[in-house]
Amino acid sequence: MVSSTTRPMRRLARRSAAFFATAGLAAGAFAAMPATAAAAAADPAPVDDLASRFTLAVLPDTQFYSRYSSDQFVPRYGTDPFAVQTRWIAEHADDLRIPFTAHLGDIVDRAGTQREWEAADRAMKTLEDAALPYSILPGNHDVLDSSKWDNELNAVNEPFNRWFGATRAAAQSTYMGSDATGLSQFHIFEAEGQQFMSLALSWRPSDATLEWAQRVLDAHPTVPVILSNHALLGVAADQTTPVETGDSTRMWDTLIKGNDQIFLTLNGHFHGATRQVKTNDFGHPVHQILMDYQMAYEGGNGYLGLLEFDLTNDTISLETGSPWVTFKPQETLTSYDQPLLDGPHQRFTLDFDFSERFQGFHPGFTAGTPDEPSLSNAVRSILLDGFEGPDPISTELPGNELDFVQVDGTLAHWRFNGHDGTVDADTVIEDIVGDNDLTRVDPADTAAVGATWEDVTIENTDVHGFSSDGAAACFDNSSGSRFSYLTTAADAAINNADLTQGYTIETFIKMDADWDAAANGWSKVITRTGNRSLMGAPRTQWDWTASPTALGISNLREFQFTSLPADAAQGDRVNWSGEIMVDTWSHVAIVNDAAAGTTTMYVDGAPVLRNANNVAGQAGMADMPWIIGADWVDNAARNGWHGCVGETRIIDRPTTPDEWLTQRADLSGFTVAQAPEGTIGPDVPVIFAGTGLPGAEVRTAPGHATTVVAEDGTWQLEITDGVVRGANSFELVQALGSRAGTPVAIEFEVERLAVAVAASTRTLAGKQYVSVAATNNESAPVDIVIETPYGAKTFLAVAPGKSANVSINSRLTSVPAGTASVAATGVVEGETVTMTKLAAYPAG
């Protein structure tokens, strides 16, 4: 745990030169992509670019910060993102000229839970203690019955009014009043010598509330208005395209378009970021901005909006930044922790001629004193100051289907490569580590409505980039009643797997592009079948007869992992991801550490916020199979997965990221234990041998010879091509398809002429003779010159296979040991080559 009292907000003297800019929401978190150092740094501005400027701070949905403050954030970090956001605003209010903050609702996640309101109270009190005014409004999670109009609620009983109602709001220096319910409020704040109104309307504002709002506007006809509401502008499933909603249309028609004062609207609720411009009845633009990051990594990862109003240069600019990211200890950061978001709806500048836009209702509007440098640049500078970023994660694309980490404790590993087309009764999806193969259940033998064999196919063109399998099973035409699934056999060992000491379940999955919440919500992709009600699990309202363990998707496109711990009587534990994009592959790893009592879900390498605690191991029901592609409830399959499933692995222990299927096989253990050394004859075989990764290919250059490492980890390769007379330099490398390890260099010499030499001494008539023989092993004649310390002799055109022999009298009665020199000259491949060899002889 990192204490908030021992870790102040970082404002260090150095600035990180590079980070990853984040484009938008993906895989339950943020899809990060590289950015240059120039893009990361604050945009340069001329020193004399002073203008009349101020910043409006915007707090989008904080519900998960409040909900998980005490049990997730505080134990890990000593505080929560909500508290860090408001502390950062208070700390930098002067630097950024922040006169006001707008909260967009969904302050808490469960309106009836006291500790969530307490967390929100602590966070917002920081602004009050700093004398920084703010507006706040209830979202659908902040009221006791979100189906009702605000005037249908019992205002006295509403927690929002107890925690943030009119009485507390009245303490704000900018507060001007609330509606009859106390759920809506308005403030007038001053910035750069001008007044602006923050009109904050409740969740589901009734006609009476909109009439109240109109009276407020009528009473302040010259004040420009920023309207905030929890749910106004919507966003499409791509989390980019703006979508009109019933509320946005109603409020536009009833309130916004007829009041020229309203020039900007802000809202949250809908997961993503987008904006649009509409023209009101006066022919003027109304800019509408949505920001909501609650379904992203860590419940939003502390991102807030900072709107710079440049009254001199007539622009409004948005920066989306996270003081939470820069607060967290560097060692806890992941690739999703980026201090600034640079997506098209997360960072932008609007041209906005203030005096012209406000001319119709406030002709006297003017800019203030031009004495502020760029505040947007200041935001970026502050957030980047000292930010070191996460440690780099080494992840490479796989070279081939063998390029994955094999892990001890793997109980089953299902892969789809080698198959294509319809999965029929004869298709067997192999378990590459055991006898837990998967087969397709005949649609006719299930309760599925309308399912056919063609509903399940193996696809080889669209898989997760970091899966080495290269194939996936895709389930089409799926719904609650139409489903197909793959199953282990009745006697498969995995059915009775003991996962009580911890486990890892790993898979690659995606929802189909036409996934629909009504038809496909709450479907499951991987299920350990069984019936909780027969396993000692406590009775529950919704899932008492469901399977003991399943990974699936909610109707809000959140990955949900639900599992009974080893002690089923404790009841299930659930993990939830953020919002997941359709038609996008995700790698999901579920890791249970029984010793620590935790189950953590990782989506594309990042842990989700809502993980399970007090959970040791996993319960199973004897002899019940694992299935892929459907749920299992009331002792039967249902709720088919609508999308694809890639390779899937079950391990009997917790693992770490370096062991996951997104990592690559280790190619560093390659050795060359046998290779030519020094100088060898042309007729000597060139053989390399050593050890490596079983299944990997060993390649040589030059020559391009290959072999495969055997199951025992050994390999041998004889080279015939590429060996030349004279100096040879080879590189040997171990590879898995397109990915190769570090090459090993081998150098040796091959005699340029194949001439064998030998020398000896002998005694004849009391004198010592040195005898030398040189044999031509070439296919053409060679000239040979033999030299000894006692004389020399030349032999011309010694024929192939013939020898030049000489015995030279030393004329001495004894000679010391020495060497004879043999020079051979011949033509090899059209080139005249001379080679000298030495032959040793003993003393005589």
Rounded to the nearest angstrom, the distance between the terminal CA atoms is 85 Å
Q: Could you give the count of β-strands?
A: 54
Q: What structural class do the secondary elements suggest?
A: mainly beta
> For the report, how would you describe the main beta sheet?
10 strands, antiparallel
Residue fraction in strands: 35-45%
* Mean pLDDT over all positions: 92
In DSSP terms, counting alpha (H) and pi (I) runs of 4 or more, how many helices?
13
Task: Tell me, briefly, the overall form.
Answer: elongated
**CA radius of gyration:** 38 Å
Uncertain ranges: 1-42
Multimeric status of the protein: single chain
Question: What percentage of residues falls in helices of 4 or more residues?
Answer: 10-25%
Which terms summarize this structure?
about 850 residues; mainly beta; ten-stranded antiparallel β-sheet; eight-stranded antiparallel β-sheet; 54 strands
List the helices and strands and how they pair.
Blueprint: E1 20-26, E2 29-34, H1 37-40, E3 53-59, H2 63-67, H3 69-77, H4 81-96, E4 100-103, H5 114-129, E5 134-135, H6 159-164, H7 166-169, E6 175-178, E7 185-191, E8 194-201, H8 207-219, E9 225-229, E10 234-235, E11 242-243, H9 246-256, E12 262-267, E13 272-279, E14 285-292, E15 304-310, E16 315-321, H10 323-327, E17 340-341, E18 348-351, H11 354-357, H12 375-384, E19 410-414, E20 421-422, E21 428-429, E22 438-440, E23 456-459, E24 472-475, E25 486-488, E26 503-511, H13 517-520, E27 524-528, E28 549-553, E29 558-563, E30 573-579, E31 586-593, E32 598-603, E33 606-607, E34 612-613, E35 626-628, E36 631-633, E37 636-638, E38 643-651, E39 671-674, E40 679-680, E41 686-691, E42 697-701, E43 706-708, E44 714-719, E45 726-736, E46 739-740, E47 744-750, E48 755-764, E49 767-776, E50 782-788, E51 791-798, E52 803-809, E53 818-828, E54 831-841
Parallel strand pairs: 3-4, 4-5, 8-9, 9-12, 12-14, 40-47
Antiparallel strand pairs: 1-2, 3-15, 6-7, 7-8, 10-11, 13-14, 15-16, 16-17, 16-18, 19-38, 20-23, 21-22, 22-25, 23-24, 24-38, 25-35, 26-31, 26-38, 27-28, 27-35, 28-29, 29-30, 31-32, 32-33, 32-34, 36-37, 39-41, 41-44, 42-43, 42-45, 45-46, 45-47, 48-49, 49-52, 50-51, 50-53, 53-54
Helix pairs in contact: 4-5
